Amino acid sequence: MVQAYKKFHDQGFQVITISIDEVKDKWTDALKQDGMLDFVNLFNGGDLSGLATTLKIVTIPTNYLIDDQGKIIAMNLRGEALTNFLSDRH
Asked: Smallest Cα–Cα separation from 15: which of 63, 86, 81?
């Protein structure tokens, strides 16, 4: 995700993370360690039921790619699959 962000951010690619971790300090430490501080990071501590229900999340981590019209165009792409998908769209 970090590599895709660095490669495609100037073309409008944005990453928003939402944490449902119980302990905020562990989550913020992981963000620092994984180089994710440039993302939009939101903390929704411990709320798996409401957030998961609203977003229909059944596994963690889950990711969605949403176009500039607000339409979900892909789900759960990681690594090379994510980079390839973004390369094909730009």
From this structure: 63
Q: Residue 20: helix, strand or coil by DSSP?
A: coil
Check if the beta carbon of residue 8 is closer than 8 Å to that of residue 90: yes
Going from N- to C-terminal start, the domains of the chain cover 2-89
* Alpha-helix residue ranges (DSSP H) falling in 1-90: 2-8, 24-33, 48-55, 79-89
Per-residue pLDDT of the chain (90 residues; tens, 9 = 90+): 999 999 999 998 999 888 888 888 988 999 999 999 999 998 887 766 676 677 777 777 888 898 888 888 998 999 999 999 999 987
Q: Would the pTM of this model clear 0.70, i.e. be above it?
A: yes
Give me the architecture of the 2-89 domain, per CATH. 3-Layer(aba) Sandwich (3.40)
CA angle 81, 84, 86 (to 5 degrees): 110
**Exposure on the CB side of residue 37, measured as CA atoms within 13 A:** 5
